[in-house]
Amino acid sequence: MSLILGGGISGLAAAFYALKSAPKPGAITLLESSSRLGGWVRSVQSPEGLIFEKGPRTIRPKGRLGANTLKLVEDLGLADQVIPITSSHPTAQNRLIYVNKKLHKLPSNFFSLFKTHSPFSKPLIFSILHDLTTKTVPKTDESIYDFVSRRFGSEVADYAVSSMICGICAGDAKKISVNFLMAKLFELEQLHGGVIKGAIKEMMSKRPDLSGYEESELYRRSRIEKWSVWSVEGGLQTIVNTLGEHLSNKVEVKMDTTCTNLEFLEKGVKVTLNNDQHIEANHVVSALPAPKLGMLLHKQHPTLGNLLSSIEHVNVAVINLAYENIPMKQNAFGFLVPPREKLPILGVVFDSCCFEQADWTILTVMMGGAWYDTYFKGQSKEYILDIACRYVHEILDMPRTPHAQHVEILKACIPQYTLGHAARVKDIQGYIDTHQLPLYLTGSSYDGVGVNDVIALSKKAVESIKWQHWGAQAG
Ligand SMILES: Cc1cc2nc3c(=O)[nH]c(=O)nc-3n(C[C@H](O)[C@H](O)[C@H](O)COP(=O)(O)OP(=O)(O)OC[C@H]3O[C@@H](n4cnc5c(N)ncnc54)[C@H](O)[C@@H]3O)c2cc1C
Ligand SMILES: C=Cc1c2[nH]c(c1C)Cc1[nH]c(c(CCC(=O)O)c1C)Cc1[nH]c(c(C)c1CCC(=O)O)Cc1[nH]c(c(C)c1C=C)C2
């Protein structure tokens, strides 16, 4: 029997691919501790009929991983429900940062590199020249902040990159490793002696390399129509629901079932459940956050348990605000607040600018992340809502009180790939390989925090399963 732990998008995708890869149909079981599937992918319907995204809201179509997710969505029969945002759409062009009590547009095209854009003190072309003329310092790892300061100068690090890190992992660029979120830039520097030099060389080969991934009709459409990001009708929860329907009758999905201990046997693995029952399986695919998996196997494998638990995750408060018949003055994806502004909000997504919902303006305020304890430790939801409303009023001139709202604190929802993360992940995989544990890892703790990353990792994990063991025992 093949066991999948966790019914978030990673676990569901793992089950989807396991159905394809398994040598014969049958015993795949998925355990989910809560009473719903999807994990952080959650679209809440408000009493007014509005959709509030609590977690992810847009997915990138580009590259191998983007193509892979579009293939999954097409295979699920959801192609007609995809809502694309093209690269000419205002939300793809306008990404804002809030500095010195003002909103500033980040440069979005080649020509804007030659002009001075506030809050930058000189045209960004000087930062590019800085990269072209700066020698490579051989390194194995450094913080994103230090890397960007070194190659492009401190303004780019403070305003553009520190904000981007907040807008992707709610993290502090001074602590996050360059090796993961900016792995590509770092690799270009180390391989070609500079980021821009490397990017130009790589641009010569125009067609994206999709090796290992299938191209779908939807991916071709995304390239022809130049999609920037996409979602689906009903919100991203639709993908989760459709995956759930696709798996029903083929995979045994056990809801409200928490795995409380994992014990590796001479052959296979014994799983303890919250009702004190046990399941034996040939192998386990973990689609749990690393620290949760760490706790489950700590008793038998403390070294592995400690390594998994050392991958830090942060809390994010997500506050959806809705205003009826009050249009916004700005048309943009949203704004981010660079950490040096020392404000209690990370950023605000202008959801209804991307995906209209009748006469409503819908905003999502995200707060906390790496600074959650600094601003919100022990605070109530009412306090958090009040802070969100106050800043939306001050910065965007929306009424002080919204017509509808939804507040939630997502505990330990985003992993932080801090310095040394790549080495930690290597040690984790090294331990699993050395001890020949029938354990396969997926989820956002290891190799990318976005939806595309985790779906692709689930595919890779399932494809690496030694199914012959499974075939021999499941017979
Ligand atoms: C606020 C926010 C905004 C985001 N925005 C974007 C975005 O715009 N675009 C994008 O691409 N990505 C975004 N992401 C990232 C994306 O949401 C994640 O990559 C993805 O949801 C991770 O899914 P997962 O299945 O790996 O983990 P999870 O969603 O954490 O799923 C794990 C599941 O395991 C279950 N579980 C836990 N412990 C046990 C146990 N012991 N036994 C059984 N089950 C257990 C949990 O209940 C959960 O359902 C965002 C994330 C957050 C938090
Ligand atoms: C303010 C907090 C956050 C906002 N979004 C997230 C947080 C923590 C989480 C998040 N956003 C994206 C991803 C996926 C990354 C990926 O690998 O695909 C995650 C985990 C998408 C994203 N959001 C922003 C950018 C630049 C990206 C990358 C993809 C893309 O280019 O679209 C910017 C951004 N995020 C937030 C805001 C307010 C914002 C910009 C104005 C919210």
TrEMBL record:
It is found in: Mitochondrion inner membrane. It catalyses: protoporphyrinogen IX + 3 O2 = protoporphyrin IX + 3 H2O2. Keywords: FAD, Flavoprotein, Heme biosynthesis, Oxidoreductase, Porphyrin biosynthesis. Residues 9-455 form the Amine oxidase domain. The keyword Ubl conjugation does not apply. It holds the Pfam family Amino_oxidase. One of its GO terms (molecular function) is oxygen-dependent protoporphyrinogen oxidase activity. Gene3D superfamilies: FAD/NAD(P)-binding domain. It comes from the Eukaryota. Binds 1 FAD per subunit. GO terms for cellular component: mitochondrial inner membrane. Pathway: Porphyrin-containing compound metabolism; protoporphyrin-IX biosynthesis; protoporphyrin-IX from protoporphyrinogen-IX: step 1/1. Its EC number is 1.3.3.4. SUPFAM superfamilies: FAD-linked reductases, C-terminal domain, FAD/NAD(P)-binding domain. Its cofactor is FAD. Catalyzes the 6-electron oxidation of protoporphyrinogen-IX to form protoporphyrin-IX. Belongs to the protoporphyrinogen/coproporphyrinogen oxidase family. Protoporphyrinogen oxidase subfamily. This is Protoporphyrinogen oxidase. It comes from Diaphorina citri (Asian citrus psyllid).
